[in-house]
Structure formats: C-alpha cells, structure tokens
Amino acid sequence: MPTFPDCQSKRPTQLNPLNPYHYVLIVYWVFFRPSILHSYLYDASPRLYILRGGRKFWQGFAVKAYRRLYLMFPVALAFLAIALGLLFSTVTAYNLQGHSSGVTAVVATTDGAIAVSAASDRQMKSFVPATDAMLKVWDLERGSERATLKGHRKSVSAVAIAPDGKRAISGSFDETVRVWDLQTGQQLYKLEGHERWISDLAIAPDGITAVSASGDGTLKVWDLQRGTERYTLVGHEGEIYDLAITPDGTRVVSASGDGTLKVWDLQRGTELYTLKGHQGGVNAVIITADGEGVISASGDGTLKVWDLAQGTERYTLTGHQDSVDTIALLPGNRLVSGSKDKTLKIWDLAQGQELYTLKGHKGWISSVAVAGERILSASSDNTLKVWDGAQGQELYTLEGHNSWVRAIATLSDETAISVAYDRFPRVWNLATGQLIPLNQVRLQRLGYLFSLFVSGGFSLFLTVVLVALTLTMGLMLFGLYGSIFASLGVSLVFSACYTLAVIAFDRLKAHPSFGAFAEISLLDRSLYIALGICFGLLLNVSLGLANRKALGAIAGIVTTTAIAVFSSIVVAGFLNRPATSIKGSLVGGWRAIESIGIDFNRFVAIGSLRLIFYPFNLIPQRTHLSQWDESVVLPLPGTTRFLLHRLQQSESLGLQIAAEIAANPFQRAAVQRALYTHLHRSPAPLHFLYRLLSAPELESYLLAPIEPKDWKCFLSRRQVLLGELALQPVRCSSETLSAWAESFVGVLTHWARSRRTTPLTQFATFLYAQTFNSPKLTSSSLEQLYSACERYPGGVEIRCSWSALKIFLDYQTLSDLGGAVDVLATEEFLGLFSARSNALNPSVIDSLERLGKIAAEVTTPETLTAPNQPLVTFARALNSLERLEALARQSIRLPEQVLLLRAIEQWRSIIFAALEERSLSPLSGVDLAEATPRG
Q1: pLDDT at 95
Q2: Distance of CA 445 to CAs 83, 192, 258, 423, 425, Å?
Q3: Chain centre distance of CA 494
Q4: Is the backbone peptide bond immediately before 895 cis, with ω within 30 degrees of 0?
Q5: Is the pLDDT of residue 220 over 90?
Q6: Which of 522, 667, 684, 852 is the most exposed place for a label (fewest CB within 10 A)?
Q7: Distance CA 193, CA 298 (A)
Q8: How high is the pLDDT of residue 377?
Q9: Alpha-carbon distance 507 to 927, whole Å?
Q10: Residue 929: CB partners within 8 Å, gap ≥ 6?
Q11: Exposure on the CB side of residue 894, measured as CA atoms within 13 A
Q12: Burial class (CB in 10 A: 0-12, 13-18, 19+), 671
C-alpha cells in the first residue's frame, strides 16, 4: 500500500500567526506548492487529516499546528481592516489635495502670489449634488496648496478676491455667499438671502462692497466689513449670468438671460438704465478702463458697445457664427472675444471694426485673458493658446490639461494660471509656452502616491492571504467540495465588490463633471478583466489544492461557457415578449453568448491557465520552475533538459524530482521525454528500470489523498513513472470528470511525448502491468521480450532468472527438484553467481542459489535413507522456503517476486507430498528448532 507523499521541502512544523513570513508561505503553498500544505497538515496529525466537518474543526484546536493555522485567519482579517483604514485615509487625504471635481473658476491677487480656485458642475442647476464644495488657495511662489476653504454644502460657482488680497468671497449652488480670510483660511461670514444659486460675484475697489448675482434674477449688495446685506436689486426677468463694477465703484452692470443689461447705482441701490437690443441671453459684460463704456456678449453671436453715461447703444459688432461667451479688453482701445464657433476675434472699439479672426482651436472658447499684448484663450479641446494681440498670430499651444479648460487668470505679463475639469491648476510661462510645475504639490502627490502604493499593496496582499486561508479552511474541513465552494464564495464576494464599483463608476460617468474622471472607463474595464481572471484562477487553485489540476485548468472555462449558454437560453426564450421577433430573440441570445462565453471567457481562460504567473515562471531561479510552481499549465522551457541533468547526476534523486513534477498532468509529457531519453542513453538501462521498480521513495502516493476514496485509487509515484515510460495512459483521479480532464490533457500533450516503441519500452510495459498484478503477456511473448533485452547490460541475467524460475515452476515431484541443481550448475549460472556484486538484482541470484541448495539437500540419497533423516531434511527445507519467501516479499520486486513466490509455493507442495508419501509428519518426533538451519 503506498504511503502519504513526503514533502522534501524545508518548511516550519508549525505556522506562527505573528510571523509575517508565514503568511507569505501560506500564499505560496496554496497558489504554487499545495503538496507542502498537504504535508504540513498530514505530518501535524495523520488522524485529523482524514477527518471532515465540524468534528475535525473542534479537534484541530488540540493540535498546535492546526490551532495556529486557524488563528492566522482572524489576525489577517484584523490587519486587513487596519490596512483598508489606512488606504481610505490616504485616499481621502489624496482627494483633498486638489479638487475632486471640475474646476471652473480661478482668480488671483494683484501681485500674482496667491490664487483661489473653485469647483462646480457643468450645468448650473441647484438640485445637482455637490462633488466638491471646497475652494483651494494656492501659494504660487512656493508652488504648494496653501489652504482648503470648507463650508459650502454644494458646488462653488463663483469666486472673487478683494483688491488688498486678504479676503475672498465665494458663491455656491447652496444659495449662500461666504467671506473668507485668506491668511488663516477661516470663514468670516455666511451671507444668505438668495433663493437660487450664485452665478457671479464682484468686489468694489474699496474692498468693502461686494455684489452677487443669482439664478433667482436678483443682485445683492453686501457689506463685507460687517457681513450684512445693504440692498437687493430686483428687475431682471431671467437668470443673471454676469456682472461688472465700474472702476470708481459707484455703479454695477448686470447681464441676464432675459436678453437685457441693467445699470444700477450702488450707493442708492436703484436701477439707472435698462440696455436692450440683444436677441439672446447676455453671457458676459465688461466695463472699459475709463468707466464710460460697456461691452456685452450675447448668445445671439453679437457684441454690443454701450455708452454707460447715456444708457444708449453705440454700435453692434457682428461676425461670430455662434454664441459669444467670453470677452476681455486689450491695450489700445481694443477688445478680444471668444465664441462657441471655435474662433476668437480682435475688435477696434474706436472704429467698431473687426481687426483679426484667430483660428486654431478645435472646441468652444470658454475663457480669454490678456497679459500685455498677449492673448490667452482656453477651449473645450483641452488646450490653451497664446496669441500675439498686435499681429493676430498664434504663438504657442499650451498642452497639459486632460479635460476642458474652463478659466484663466493672469498673474503678470509673463505668467498665467488656468483650471479645467481636472483636479489641479496649471501655471504657464507665456514667454516660452512652458508649464511651470507646482513643485510642492508634486512632492506631496508623490508622497501620497507612495502611501497609496504601500497601503494598497498591503491590503491587496492581505486579501490574497485571506483568500488562501479561506481555500485552505474549505479543503481542511470539507475536502474537495469544501475547496470548490470556498472558491465560489470568494468569487461571489469579488462579484459583489465589482458590482458596487460599477455602480459607483456609472454615477461618476453620469456626473456633469465626468471630464475629471476620464480614466474611469479604463478602470472599469480593468476591473472587468480582473474579475474574469480571478474567477478562473480561483477555480484553478481550489481544484489544484484538491489535487485535481487537470480539471482545474478547464473548470473555469467550461463553467463560464455553461453560464453563457444558460443566459442565452433565458434571454432568447423566457424573456421573449410578443413584441419581440424571433430574430430579435436570437440576436439577444447570441449577444449573451458573445459577452459572457467569448469576451468574459477570454479573461477567465487567462486565470484558468495561470497565464498571469507564466512571466514569473520564466525568470531564472536557483531551482527549476517546474519545482517552484507545481500547478503550471503551459510547458516550461528546459524541463526535459533539467530532468536529464538530474538523472545523470543521480538517478535516485532524479527519479524523486521527476515524480514530483509528474504530479502535474500538464508536465508529464516533459517527464516522459526525460525518462525515455535517459533510458535509451543510459549505459545500463535495465538497471535504471529496476531502480525505478525498487526505489522505496517511489512507493508513496503521487498525490496527497483528499477524499476517502482517494486512498484506494490514487497511483503511486512508481506506477505513474512506469506508465509514462511504458507509453500507457496514466489516470490519477477518482472522479469521472477529473479522469476525463486528465484524458483530455493527455490528448493535448500527446505531441510532446516520445512515442517510438523499443524493447526497453516493451519491458517497461511489462513491469507497469506487473505493478497492477495484471500481466498481459504469454510465456512465449515473455521469452521474446527477455531475449530482446539480452543485448543490454543485465539482460542475460534477467533472461536466465526468468528461464530458471520458469523451469522450477514445471517441477511436479521430489525427484524433479534435482534438475534445479543441474540448471544452476551450468556455466551461464555459475558466471552470474560469481558476478552477483554487479548484478541487476542480486537478491534474485541469491534466491536462486538458495533454491539450488534446498534442491540438493532434499534430493541427496544419504539424507533420505538414514532413520528420521528424511523428516529432518524436509523440515529444514520447508523452513528454508519460509525464510526465502519472507526475503522475497521484502527485497525482491516484480516481476521476479511473483515467479519466485510461485516457485516456493510449488516446491512446498512437492515436499509436503513427499512427506505424505512416506507417511511422515513434520510435526512429530523431530525438534524443528534443532532442524532449522542457522545463519
């Protein structure tokens, strides 16, 4: 009966829950070396190893090795909770650095040292939930984030900085205006009163008076020193989009979606004029430096120049083909405008004429700014452009944002800052067109990314540890099916996490600021791929852990295909409605097969075939990778060469390694080639076969038994290696599905085996049949087989042994036994006796010699004529046969053992017959102890 496989690898006798290295070991054992795990469990308690269920669980606490393995699970779970907490904290801190939503507004202090950015949603709807309700203060001299201004409950829509650079105000979708101290980052006042979102803000030159415009159609004038409301300016019939305060701070002009502009007296809080003429909503308004003119831009594609003192229109500037959204003043009484028609235009305000049309952007113009004679434009094509305002030519294209660029603010004549629907602002050198990095922000991001990498990697590792422990517990407690259900349970957990992630990503995609999350589509697909790989890998590992490696390689693919077919039947049949045609149902069914059975199954196959590990398997190791990874599916380069080298160094060690590798049905072809090649290259091939037949270390099971029936049907290492040499299909599975899978693997790897039949492979076939006690060759066939082996070293010996034993089996009477003496006295046998030290199987030669001595003793006339001598002689012969039988069972292997045991039994029958013939009893009148030969 084969013994349990003995693991030669160095391993701890007891795992320690407080030793981090042992967690690495358990992952390695489960995913790559399950034989070590089985050896650990069996050596800890052979009695517990064969038990199943709750009884085994409770009794396992009495075994230290089992108890420590149990404790590893809650310890790993606790550390995973800590790691996830650190990961969540790091992600939160990382998200707090920079905005987490689209940035749509930015303003800077007059000295260009400080900038404030605000995030908002693309659509100005008050019911849109906030994704980023904070403002960020940036120290542009140090290149760092200075403060985060928290307080708004919804997205921030507008921001302005006081002339002294000490205060800022912000307006939000939460209908409030908040006043901030930029030095401390503290909120000073919360100004309430508007009934809809705040669309724009402006601070008067005195730094005390501020005006807010709202979607409710009103403006409010605030006292920033006291944090109180002065006036509410009512008159517009639509949402107010923009406002501007005159340089002297006495008047404010508002632009509305009702197509009008209104001029208000800030001192009295009264309306002065209504400027009418636009055929669409007024998007932007600015006041000339002298405070006498107003320029408005409208959705009707026109600009209008107004006389502020008279409240009358001077002229209309036409030329844009779409809505004009942004305008800015240039030196020399000129104006630049940006439109949804993807162009900018430079106008001469004195003449009311167009000077240049600036083309080059591939998207809408969302913002323009002026720095000296340079014009800076921002577009929905994710770029900015720097133009020469005097010549009307493009100087540079500034690339760096990965989403729609929404706003620009100039810091000086040489620098500017821009924001987009991504997280961080960009600072630009306008003279060179180069990006000026925010160095401190970059260092902080690197620090957070490193923390994310560490905490995320630790969390991932502990997740893998928990998966490995879950599979181990399932296998320990419930065997094969426990391992399978554990893998399916883990797969369901992963599927639930994937579903939650997809829902979250879909919400982010649906969010108006999705431009800030452009990478989510790639992440979504990556998780889909990871789910498929994990599902295939988990089934592969769970079945490999239960020593069903062949089934594990195809189970995931077959299961996914079955799910796809079932889904297609449900979609095409049960979900069919009368309104759906047969063609539509079939198309729906095919799409289910295509999405699950083909697309998703591709990634399941990667996991099932362990392709994610294959690149690591190609990395050079101190030992060959076939020993490092027991479950590898694809052929490993150099396996045959490695085994040949080991066999040449030491056949005993080489056979042990070959047996370990042969436990994987995908690698048996390489083992067969190595054994076949070594057998035919060996100077003593028959000696090699007999070593394979007699090596005690090959008596153990090839695989560790998992189920009770495995103990009865699993093959020994010797049987598998002999079967491969004999070119016989070898199956090591106790279930029909697993046996079918091994046969399938055998067909797939058929091409990689050496298939030429030789006398040596025929002899190996005979030995393989003998190991199952099922010889399939007749005596004549055996004669031919042994004769064919005579040309190899040791061939004459086994042919002579076979011939002698065959002759000895033909003896029927006591007188026939004398022929054994004559057979063994021939020159051929005398040569074997003299050269027994180099014999193929010295024990067989010794046994033949003993049989010859027994035959000589029982057939000598002198021993048969003296009184009582026959009884003594026969008793000694029977005792010698008994001792020879014990020796044969202990030290002589098949096939000679079978023939020798038959010959001993035959001779014993002959001697008993002789005793009966002489009416002698071997139990009367003779002391058998004295008759027993000594030594």
Answers
A1: 64
A2: 20, 36, 45, 12, 14
A3: 12
A4: yes
A5: yes
A6: 522
A7: 28
A8: 93
A9: 99
A10: none
A11: 18
A12: buried
Helices (H), 695-731: 710-713, 717-725
Residue 96's φ and ψ, nearest 5 degrees, are -70, -20
Distance in angstroms (rounded) separating the CA atoms of residues 49 and 515? 57
**What is the rounded CA–CA span in Å between residue 866 and residue 859?**
13
392-446 pLDDT, tens digit each: 899 999 988 888 898 999 988 899 999 888 778 889 888 888 888 877 777 777 8
Buried-exposed string 797-836: b where 16+ CB fall within 10 A, e elsewhere: bbbbbbebbeebeebeebebbbebbebbeeeebeebeeeb
Q: Which amino acid is at 11?
A: R
Q: What is the CA radius of gyration of the chain?
A: 46
Q: Taking Cα atoms as reference points, which of 539, 580, 582 lies closest to residue 562?
A: 539
The closest of 168, 127, 170 to 151, measured between CA atoms, is 170
Residue 531: beta bridge partners? none
| Across 163-187, average pLDDT | 90
Task: Render pLDDT for 674-703 as a digit per residue (tens, 0 to 9).
Answer: 999 999 998 888 888 888 887 888 888 888
Q: What does the CA dihedral 731, 733, 739, 745 come to, rounded to 10 degrees?
A: -60
Q: Which residues contact 493 (CB under 8 A, 6 or more apart)?
A: none
Q: With H, G, I as helix, E, B as strand and everything else as coil, classify residue 681.
A: helix
CA dist 880 and 889 (Å) reads 14
Q: 842 with 797: CB under 8 angstroms?
A: no
Compute the distance between CA of residue 59 and CA of residue 48 in angstroms, rounded to an integer: 8
Cβ–Cβ under 8 Å, residues 130 and 153: yes
Dig out the tokens for 30 from the structure: 């489960």
Tell me how far apart the alpha carbons of residues 589 and 598 are, in angstroms, rounded to a whole number.
Answer: 13
Q: At what angle do helices 842-859 and 827-834 cross, to 10 degrees?
A: 130
Which residue in the block uniquely carries the two structure tokens 């034989």? Answer: 35
- Per DSSP, the three-state class of 245 is strand
The pTM (predicted TM-score) of the whole model is: 0.71
Output the 3-class SS for 804-861. HHHHHHCCCCCHHHHHHHHHHCCHHHHHHHHCHHHCCCHHHHHHHHHHHHHHHHHHCH
Tokens representing residue 727 in the block = 């070119």
Q: Report yes or no: 380 and 363 within 8 Å, Cβ to Cβ.
A: yes
- How far is 805 from 897, CA to CA, in rounded Å? 10
Distance CA 119, CA 424 (A): 11
- The set of residues, in sequence order, having a beta carbon less than 8 Å from that of 919 and lying 6+ positions away, is none
**Which 3 state secondary structure label does DSSP give 253?**
strand
- Which 8-state DSSP code applies to residue 597? I
**358, 344 Cβ separation under 8 angstroms:** yes
User: For residue 99, which of 139, 142, 131 has the smallest C-alpha distance?
Assistant: 131
| Burial track 67-79 (b if 16+ CB lie within 10 A, e otherwise) | ebbbebbebbeeb
User: Among positive and negative, which fits the CA dihedral 203, 204, 207, 209?
Assistant: negative
